[in-house]
Structure formats: structure tokens, C-alpha cells
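Colleagues,

For the teaching module next term, I've prepared a clean inverse folding example: a structure given as C-alpha cells, and then the sequence designed for it. I'd like students to try predicting residues themselves before seeing the answer, so please don't circulate the second half yet.
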């Protein structure tokens, strides 16, 4: 595990302390964007660690475009209606947080990518494309409905509504069950809600012809002025993002065949010229299908329960509520005996209609017999493609039985009980690297390795890393981008 820090000015890194008991949190008021040209972000990591949700197995991720055209955004609720996710632009991702048209104009100088994209060319009616940014994702869904949420925004609004400068984007999916007009029989699922119209400037707008527009470009099948209710005017506003207009939050959805291989392209481009950029905001963790989750929680930090002590909680949950009861069947096995070492678990429960979760208790039973560490496995069929298993350890009760003196207590007599047990509790685990690390030259990323050992479980869940303590000598700490990175590349942004 390591910390990575990048600074725009000189910084001396004096120490790091990783604590495991106190909650760590950051709050900000305005949308922040970090481009994929800034470590540890990359276009592939943005898909894998930010956009990807549950119920899909991603086989391959390919990105075409400049890295600066994509980025990670957070605190976006007030700006676009989505709290966090990734942004795909025809300009520079980090510059979408300004106000007024000049910010987007600045983008034009830094993303001069001229690429052909056959499906966008079809969507644009054959008009030339500029500054294409495109993801191609090969994946296997584990349920029958793929969906994710997004917002389209552009600097072409409102002046170029109904013009030839009709910036385009699309989500083109191909695979079993699709036979559309796009590459490999693909279909575009970036559609105006309850229509078959692609989401473009000439289809979703303020309902008025722009000063550079012509009604012919907003007449079927080229466009329409009928969906102003789905549009948000942001011109001359001090509200982020920099784009002069953006859509409501839309949901892209496709009916797929579970366990089959599909390809989806997420692509955007300027049309005709490279001026006035556009972007699409994709909600974090929203790319996926429905799936059953299982999670174990115990009172101890090591994930174990002890005989005669507090119960363990196993929670089964769905991504969204259903209209009917959902029956969950699970298999219980391990070295601990069901019904003998803990209260009997029947192997089934119901998630009621309209709810998203249901839980069972694992109640450990005291047998007063010294035993080695025992295991309890809970196995479920997450979806029709694969199973999942959680593990709970069962330990002997290590508390000593206190010596109690016999005494006679008469009815109505008050007696004060006072005693203590010699309980040895393990202190909080902390890991430190005190090597001073100067950032020279400025804008250079540095890494500070932290050796972590003896931590269970091996995959840390939310809330388990509770504090990261840093000793920094810097005139402007807000200039720092700081991330905690696991050996597998997963990371937590600590400060950006």
C-alpha cells in the first residue's frame, strides 16, 4: 500500500500514519474534476474503479483519445444532478468546472484529436467529426437488464441549436439480441426518454432556434424542438459546469442475455469543427445489472464471532427494490456445525417486495470446550452466472469466568456489584513511514510506501480504513492531490 502525492509547489513529506479506528471524511461545496492524465487516474481505471457497478464482468477496456479528455468528478449534485462519476469530453475534463463560455473555449486548444468513428458518423448524418473520445468495453452481464445514468452537456447551446454544429455522442451496444444499424449490428441506447431519438443538441434543447440555426435542422428526422422540458439552461450562469446547457439525468438501458459476451462503445465528438466542446457525465457505479449481494458484519474488527458472545449479521441485498418477494436460498457449511456451534440457520429467507435487503443472525453457542478456530461459510447464487461465499470465523470465548463470593441478599435489599476482568484487547493497528520526501520539481508525483501486515479481512470494506494521518510542510495544502493506493491499484482519493 502506498500514498501518492502531487503538488504544484514544493512540499516536504514528513510522515504518514495509517490508523484503523477513526472515521475519515472530506466535504466540498463545488464540483471537482481530476483528469485522467493525473496519477493515479487513467482512462482504464476510471471505468474499472469508478463507473463499473455490479452484475457485469468486464473482459477488456480500450480507450481512444487524449487522456486529458476524460476525468473523475465529484460533488456534482448541484451542478448536473449526479454526485460523482466520470466525464467524457471533446475538450479537457479539468476545465469543465469554470463558469461562462471562455472556459470551454480554452479546452479547444488542448484536445485536437481528429479520428473517424463509424457509429458517430452515422449519428451525425455523415458530417465530419473532430476531437473524438471513445471507450470500447467488452463485458459479460450476469442479469438481463443493463443500465447506467448520465447527463449530456454542451457549449453549443443555445447559439447553435438547429445548426450543422450538432455535437454527438452515443452508447452503442452489440452482441446477442441486437440487430441495429451500427457496427456489428449495434444499437444506440443513448436515447431521449420514451423515444427512439438519439440524444443530440438538435433533439434536446431549449425549444428555440439558435442564432446560427435553421428550422430545417430541427425538423424530423434531423431534429426537434419538442423536449425543452428535459433541458437545463446554464448560459451566463455562475453555476457549474462551464457548459451553457445540459440535459436532465437520463438512464441508458438495454435488455441483454445473461452470461453472454457484449461490446459497448461510449463515444463523443465535435461535429464539423472543433470549437465549443461537449461532454457526457456518467454516474459512478451505475454501469451494471441487478445482482444479489451478501455481506457479513461482526462486532470484532477481525470479522470473527466468539462462543456465547455477540451475534454476527449476514445481510443479503439487491441493487433496487422489486415488486414481488425475492426468495434467497443459501448454503451453510464449514468446520463449525450448524445448530450445534451456533443457532440453526434454515438456508432460506425472503427479501419482501419493495425492500432491498434482509438479514440473518449467526448466534454462537458456548460449549465450554477448548477448540481451534472454526469456520462458517455462507454461499449464495449471486446470479445465474456465478456464486459468492462469505466467511465468518468462530472462536472460543477468551473471557475468564470471574470469581464471585457467595452472599445472602434479602428481599428489598440493595446490593452494589463491582468487579473487573483482566481482558487483553489488541490496540489499533497503525503503520507508519517517517521518511521525509520532498516534491521536486513541482507537479511531480511521489510515492510513500507503507508496509501493511496482520490485517484481517484481506479485502477491506467501507469504514475499515478510518484515518490517514499526514505531517505536511506546505504553504497551500489545498494544492495537493493525495491518494491512498492498494497493491492491486484500487485507490481512495484523500484530498484533491
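(Answer key — instructors only)
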Amino acid at each position: 500500500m502506498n500514498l501518492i502525492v502531487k503538488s504544484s509547489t514544493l512540499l516536504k513529506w514528513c510522515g504518514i500514519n495509517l490508523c484503523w479506528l477513526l472515521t475519515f471524511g472530506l466535504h466540498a461545496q463545488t464540483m471537482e474534476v481530476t483528469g485522467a492524465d493525473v496519477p493515479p487516474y487513467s482512462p482504464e481505471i476510471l471505468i474499472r474503479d469508478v463507473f463499473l457497478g455490479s452484475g457485469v464482468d468486464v473482459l477488456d477496456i480500450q480507450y481512444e483519445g487524449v487522456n486529458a479528455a476524460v476525468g473523475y468528478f465529484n460533488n456534482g449534485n448541484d451542478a448536473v444532478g449526479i454526485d460523482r462519476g466520470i466525464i467524457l469530453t471533446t475538450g479537457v475534463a479539468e476545465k469543465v468546472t469554470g463558469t461562462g463560455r471562455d472556459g470551454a473555449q480554452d479546452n479547444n486548444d488542448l484536445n485536437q484529436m481528429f479520428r473517424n468513428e463509424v457509429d458517430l458518423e452515422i449519428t451525425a448524418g455523415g458530417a465530419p467529426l473532430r476531437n473524438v473520445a471513445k471507450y470500447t468495453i467488452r463485458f459479460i452481464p450476469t442479469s438481463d437488464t443493463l443500465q447506467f445514468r448520465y447527463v449530456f452537456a454542451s457549449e453549443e447551446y443555445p447559439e447553435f441549436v438547429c445548426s450543422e454544429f450538432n455535437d454527438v455522442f452515443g452508447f452503442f451496444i452489440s452482441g446477442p439480441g441486437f440487430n441495429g444499424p451500427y457496427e456489428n449490428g449495434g444499437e444506440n441506447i443513448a436515447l431521449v426518454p420514451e423515444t427512439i431519438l438519439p440524444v443530440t443538441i438538435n433533439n434536446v434543447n431549449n425549444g428555440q432556434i439558435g442564432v446560427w440555426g435553421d428550422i430545417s435542422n430541427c425538423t424530423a428526422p434531423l431534429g426537434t424542438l419538442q423536449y425543452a422540458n428535459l433541458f437545463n439552461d446554464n448560459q451566463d450562469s455562475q453555476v457549474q459546469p462551464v457548459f451553457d446547457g445540459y440535459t436532465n439525468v437520463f438512464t441508458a438501458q438495454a435488455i441483454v442475455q445473461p452470461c453472454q459476451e457484449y461490446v459497448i462503445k461510449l463515444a463523443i465528438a465535435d461535429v464539423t469543427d472543433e470549437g465549443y466542446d461537449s461532454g457526457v457525465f456518467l454516474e459512478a457505479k451505475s454501469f451494471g445489472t441487478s445482482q444479489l449481494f451478501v455481506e457479513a458484519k461482526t462486532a470484532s474488527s477481525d470479522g470473527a464471532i466468539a462462543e456465547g458472545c455477540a451475534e454476527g449479521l449476514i445481510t443479503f441485498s439487491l441493487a433496487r427494490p422489486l415488486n414481488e418477494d425475492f426468495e434467497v436460498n443459501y448454503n451453510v457449511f464449514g468446520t463449525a456445525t450448524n445448530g450445534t456451534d451456533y443457532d440453526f440457520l434454515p438456508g432460506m429467507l425472503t427479501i419482501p417486495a419493495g425492500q432491498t435487503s434482509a438479514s440473518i443472525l449467526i448466534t454462537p453457542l458456548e460449549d465450554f470446550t477448548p477448540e481451534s478456530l472454526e469456520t462458517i461459510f455462507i454461499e449464495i447464487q449471486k446470479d445465474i452466472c456465478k456464486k459468492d461465499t462469505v466467511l465468518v470465523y468462530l472462536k472460543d470465548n477468551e473471557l475468564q469466568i470471574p470469581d464471585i463470593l457467595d452472599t445472602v441478599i434479602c428481599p428489598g435489599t440493595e446490593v452494589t456489584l463491582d468487579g473487573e476482568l483482566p481482558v487483553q484487547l489488541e490496540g489499533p493497528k497503525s503503520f507508519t513511514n517517517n521518511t521525509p520526501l520532498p516534491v521536486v520539481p513541482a507537479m511531480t508525483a511521489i510515492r510513500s510506501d507503507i508496509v501493511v501486515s496482520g490485517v484481517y479481512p484481506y479485502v477491506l470494506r467501507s469504514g475499515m480504513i478510518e484515518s490517514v494521518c499526514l505531517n505536511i510542510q506546505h504553504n497551500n495544502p489545498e494544492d495537493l492531490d493525495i491518494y491512498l493506493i492498494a497493491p492491486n491499484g484500487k485507490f481512495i482519493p484523500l484530498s484533491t
